[in-house]
Amino acid sequence: MSQWTKEELAAIAKDENLYLSIPNSDGTMHKPAWIWVVQAGNELYCRGYFGRNARWYQSAKREGHGHLSVGGVEKEVRFEFPTDEITNNHVDEGYRQKYAESPYLAPMIGTAREATVRLIPKNE
Length: 124
Hints:
The protein has 124 residues and is an alpha+beta fold. It has helices at 6-13, 55-63, 85-98, 105-108, and strands spanning 18-21, 33-35, 37-40, 43-47, 65-70, 73-80, 116-121. The protein has a seven-stranded antiparallel sheet.
């Protein structure tokens, strides 16, 4: 399984502006969506603010892969959708640490939990 390098994780941690592009059903890339990304251990996660109703989340479920751009890192990724409590607790903590001052934190560790996505770098 591919893993994030220490350099990639450090660059991504410094930037709050992750852009995620997911293919449309015709194979073209959708306009990038701005999404919060957090680190839990050596893994990266994001969540749909509107839960499973988030359009990008629905596309991610359908397509299973996309492209991220953040902190100077450009990477093809695949998606996993963890639902276990332990992972979600770690992701919650990542959101608390990175976005503690945001008024949007409560939904991201509440209703958005159902739309947790693990970002896994594809092999080059």
